[in-house]
Every structure is written in C-alpha cells, then in structure tokens.
Design a protein that fits this description.
Elements (H helix, E strand, L loop, with lengths): L4 H24 L6 H26 L4 E4 L13 E9 L1 H5 L6 E8 L2 E9 L4 E6 L4 E3 L2 E2 L12 E4 L9 H11 L5 E3 L4 H9 L5 E4 L4 H13 L3 E3 L7 H4 L2 E4 L4 H8 L4
Parallel strand pairs: 1-2, 8-9, 8-10
Antiparallel strand pairs: 2-3, 3-4, 4-5, 5-6, 6-7, 10-12, 11-12
Helix pairs in contact: 1-2, 5-6
Length: 264
C-alpha cells in the first residue's frame, strides 16, 4: 500500500527497533541460567528499542505527544491533538524465554482516535499496517478477517492471568463458557499479535482484560480496517482507558460476545 508520511515513518521506526531486538534476541539463550540476569537484559533490550522508536518518531514529529510502556507517563506534545502510543516489545515474557513470538507496536492517535497503526513481528518479518479508511495490510497483501460463521469451527485467543492476578477467576469462568462452544482457545502471550492475527483471519476472535493502551491501540485500527468488530469488553466502556477489549469477525461477534459477557 502507499502509506502516508506518518505511516512510512512508523514502519521505518518499527523496522529499526526490530533489528535491534532481533540482535538482542539471539543473546537471550545464553542468559537462561540466570533469571535475574536474563530479566535485566530483556529490560535493557526493551528500553533500547523504545529509545530507537522515540528518536525516530519525535525526531521527525517533535510536536506530537508520547505514551509508551517503558517511559510509562504520558508526555504532552505542543500539538495536543496527536500522540504516539508505543509498545517497543509486546510479548516480553516470550522474548525472555527465547520464544519467537513478540512484536513492536506503534499507533498514532489524532483527536482521540487511532488513525495509523503498525504491528511488526521481526522474528517472522511480518509487518501489519493500517490507516483509517485505507484498509489493513500484511506486508503487501490485503488483510480480511475470517468468514467463519459457526462458533464450533472458530479459534479464539486470550490472555491468561499469571502471578496471582485478581482477574484469574473471571477468566477461568470465560473459558468454562467458551471452550465447549468452539474449536479451541490459544494463549500465545502477545496481545498486539493476537489482534493482528484476528485481522488476518488466523484467529476468529480475541478478548482480554487488564491490558494497557499501548498493548491494543494499533490492533484496534488494524482489526477494524480488516473488517472486524472491536468493542469494549464491558458495554459502554473505553477500550484504551479501561484496557479491556473483545473483537471478532462480524458473523460470530454477537454470539461470541454474549458468551464472554455472560449475557445468557
């Protein structure tokens, strides 16, 4: 696709950060003997990738605002209508364990709406991109959500709470309702890629709680531009502010959402 200057800037930043992460990823295996050492290393790799993205984006668009995982706090720009929303390494635990399933996620928000998005999987060289009204793409191929209309044929993705998180019982209840009705549920540990995979028709739907704006901002636009439906998990909520989302192709969304929302 012929992207805008901003989208091309985002793609360039994602690729540059991806090259840095791939180089660091090759070193992770050597650090597995020390959990603390590996964790510290990955934290440095994550921070280095964010610095690369920040330099690329704010170096070219210094007036835009900034919200990213490592820096945490939102930085207001001179242009109050635009901000970058960045996750330099989505799937950090996968990265730490040497699993090649992680991504760089970059979104551009304008007046409260995501207008451009990039999710880059460097390990597989898959670049998912979208701009508002221009469709969604994987490398040079147009993306469309799946056309499956029978829930029993569908595969869904979610996140499973870990480390004693308070939302574990709720998620277990979700699984108890959805597993008997579908072909399977996957937990691959990278929310940005989960949403990109729904856009590509690899998954038929996705839901998760306790996320951050940088985990899902890019995925929201890519999915919608691929023809998917994306809503707050709780009706009337705010996806980015609440960190809760549910999405699927249009044919099964209502049935899927009713099960996850426990609407009877």
């Amino acid at each position: 696709m012929q992207g805008s200057a901003n989208l091309n800037l985002m793609i360039r930043a994602a690729r540059k950060a991806g090259r840095s992460l791939v180089k660091d990823f090759r070193e992770v295996e050597n650090l597995q003997v020390s959990m603390k050492g590996a964790g510290d290393f990955v934290s440095r790799a994550d921070t280095a990738a964010e610095n690369i993205i920040r330099e690329e984006l704010l170096g070219t668009r210094p007036n835009y605002g900034w919200l990213a995982e490592e820096s945490g706090d939102e930085v207001a720009g001179a242009d109050p209508t635009r901000r970058w929303i960045v996750d330099p390494l989505d799937g950090t635990t996968n990265f730490l364990h040497g699993l090649p399933h992680w991504a760089v996620s970059i979104a551009l928000e304008h007046k409260g709406e995501i207008v451009a998005a990039v999710i880059f999987d460097p390990a597989k060289d898959e670049m998912f991109v979208a701009e508002k009204g221009q469709g969604a793409w994987l490398n040079q191929s147009r993306l469309r959500v799946s056309g499956r209309s029978r829930l029993i044929e569908c595969i869904f993705a979610t996140g499973l709470p870990f480390g004693g998180r308070a939302d574990l019982p709720e998620t277990l209840q979700d699984l108890a309702r959805i597993l008997p009705a579908c072909a399977g549920v996957r937990r691959w540990g990278a929310a940005a890629l989960d949403m990109a995979y729904v856009a590509a028709g690899r998954y038929d739907g996705f839901w998760e709680r306790k996320l951050h704006a940088w985990d899902i901002a890019a995925g929201v636009l890519i999915l919608r531009e691929a023809g998917g439906l994306v809503e707050p998990l709780r009706p009337g909520g705010d996806i980015l502010a609440d960190g809760e989302v549910i999405c699927a192709n249009g044919a099964i969304f209502e049935q899927f959402a009713a099960i996850i929302r426990n609407e009877g």
